[in-house]
Amino acid sequence: MPLLDQRLAKNNFDLLRLLFAAMVCLVHSYELSRIGELKWLAETFSSDLAVKAFFVVSGFLIFMSHERSSSLGSYASKRLRRIYPAYFTVIMLSALGLVLVSDLAPADYFSMAWVRYVAANLAFLNFLQPTLPGVFEANRLAAVNGALWTLKIEVMFYLSVPILAWLFSRFARLPAMLLVYCASIAYAAALTAFAEQTGRELFHELARQLPGQLSYFIGGGLLYYYLPVFDRYRLRFLVLAAACLVADGFLPLGWIEPLALAVLVVFCGLYAYLGNFGKYGDFSYGLYILHFPVIQLYAQTDWLRANPYLFLAAVVLSSLLGAVLLWHGIEKRFLFRSSHYVSSAAADASTDPAGVAAKGV
What we know:
Elements: H1 3-8, H2 13-33, H3 39-44, H4 47-68, H5 72-97, H6 106-109, H7 112-122, H8 149-170, H9 173-198, H10 201-207, H11 214-225, H12 227-232, H13 234-247, H14 257-270, H15 284-300, H16 308-329, H17 340-345
């Protein structure tokens, strides 16, 4: 059995993605509610780190999906089936269901602003119309689903992989990948510098968009392509990566942080196997794309704010329940029989492990 298949026969990527999605949910539970007793969640966990880790896993698995696809059409079909049905469902559930909590009458709610929300969000252009008429206007943020900003980046990753793979096949792969990696770092650094010099938050927002996040995706892809080297020296890579991440808090090592994080995430994904979480399904994507409007709904009401941990439990359990229903009702039905989750349910090895790539993320 090839080394990659051997490692992927038992991996922790399903568990890692679920933990990353849960981390984002916990941080947003405080950031959207501003319940003081929950502040420790934002101080303990990092949604920013979780999103970066998602991109690492996605880079590792999506490059593999492309390399193992029989054609560009096959690759595109797998990506579309995996990400869009659940995404479409969440957008339309929000657009149609939130009329019940809008401050406006239905006749005013279903307006051109509603049409713009549906059109922009179905096209992954959430920033063009993040709100619905009369919805969550009294909340700290009025955005319906602010977590979806990562989905447009994920889709752009999907679109860029065939181009990048072609580029890497035409030129020496390692130098080409490092060039793309460094260009991404330089872009993010330049936009961050502009933000600090001008005081304009727009530059910070642009810095965290594509290509600013591409370094994490490329970091995951680099470890996919050079897995034999990583496997042979994995403990050395792990120690070096951990040292770099610790030192990054004291020294200007931002240029190495994406690759160091990639080493740590992929190491945890491929080694120290903790069980076949894929046999239950992939609830991480549903949890990620559902939790934000769930928190907004609970934050809009006052009846749980007096008990912060009841509020938190309601948010987590409601989001998880929604994720389970979304998986069994929508996501699973669009997967190919070769999907990792179809085979995992029968405790078989995946023929398309990348079919479960992280979404945002």
